[in-house]
Amino acid sequence: MKTSLSHLPPEKQEEIAMIKEIILANAPVEMIILFGSYSTGKWVEDCYVKEGVTYEYESDVDILVVTRKEKSAQNDWRWCGIEDKIRTRKRLTDTHIIAHGIGLFNEKIKDNYYFFVDILQEGTMLYDSGHYQLATPQPLSPKKRKKNAQNYFEHWSETARISYESFEFNFHKEYYNKAAFELHQVTESYYTTFLLVFTDYIPKTHDIKKLGNLASKIKAEMATIFPYSTEEEKRLFKLLRKAYVDARYDKNYVITKEELEYLAGRVKVLAVLTKELCEAEIAKYDRDQ
Question: Are residues 189 and 268 in the same domain?
Answer without folding.
Answer: yes
